[in-house]
């Protein structure tokens, strides 16, 4: 049964908590540039994630690790200029927060000051507790991220589902409670069993956003380029493609090329 959607002029961290309390699911997508952000925001998406997935989608890297803090700030600032309603959450990139809580705070402050983003997202639980505390103490909202954490891909060695075994599942549940206790306003659960994700969502009062975590959580996030079908090599079970822009764009480019070469474009009406 769907829940009546409350009209929010601007989405804030409090809006998301209210949405969970009211049983309204949260819709979250990625954006890395002004034009895409303007479209996503205009469609009414609640949260825009400026993800370190820009490393893959925009720069062509194999992992999220190479993207720098400066590059994340550039992408985030571009997104912020395109939005009016959505909450903009920005990933802290690999190496900008793991080793030193002071460095984590400096990184978060740079994102907030230089991009105008509304919150930051960090991967991990107990291991980065001090970094989260320091950022939160400075008044910067933090979204957590548990389960498959792509910045740790070389430790995992695979992008397979996480927390299938009891020991890892218990740690994930413990980390989720810790993130809530520390003061995170929400968290992402990536590629974990649906039953476990539902249990985590029911155990905390803050919103849990899933990607490959079933429908028992408080919202969903996808990479926009994936759900639009712009990327076509990536085919995980959790991905639903709403368009096939790869084919449509390819056909459009071919039509343009044919029109140029045949002198059909520009026509008399398209000239000055």
UniProtKB/TrEMBL annotation:
GO function terms (MF aspect): 3-methyl-2-oxobutanoate hydroxymethyltransferase activity
The record's remark on the cofactor is: Binds 1 Mg(2+) ion per subunit.
Q: Domain of life of the organism in this record?
A: Bacteria
Q: Which keywords are on file for this protein? A: Cytoplasm, Magnesium, Metal-binding, Pantothenate biosynthesis, Transferase
Cofactor(s) needed, names only, are:
Mg(2+)
Looking at the keywords, is tRNA processing present?
A: no
Q: Where in the cell is it found?
A: Cytoplasm
Protein name as catalogued: 3-methyl-2-oxobutanoate hydroxymethyltransferase
Family note: Belongs to the PanB family.
InterPro entries the record matches: Pantoate_hydroxy_MeTrfase, Pyrv/PenolPyrv_kinase-like_dom, Pyrv_kinase-like_dom_sf
Assembly, per entry: Homodecamer; pentamer of dimers.
Pathway per its UniProt entry is:
Cofactor biosynthesis; (R)-pantothenate biosynthesis; (R)-pantoate from 3-methyl-2-oxobutanoate: step 1/2
Q: What is its EC number?
A: 2.1.2.11
Q: What does this protein do?
A: Catalyzes the reversible reaction in which hydroxymethyl group from 5,10-methylenetetrahydrofolate is transferred onto alpha-ketoisovalerate to form ketopantoate.
Q: Does the keyword Transmembrane helix apply?
A: no
Origin species, per record, is Gillisia lutea
Which Pfam families does the record match to this protein?
A: Pantoate_transf (PF02548)
Residues the record marks as active site:
190
**Gene3D superfamilies cross-referenced by the UniProt entry:** Phosphoenolpyruvate-binding domains
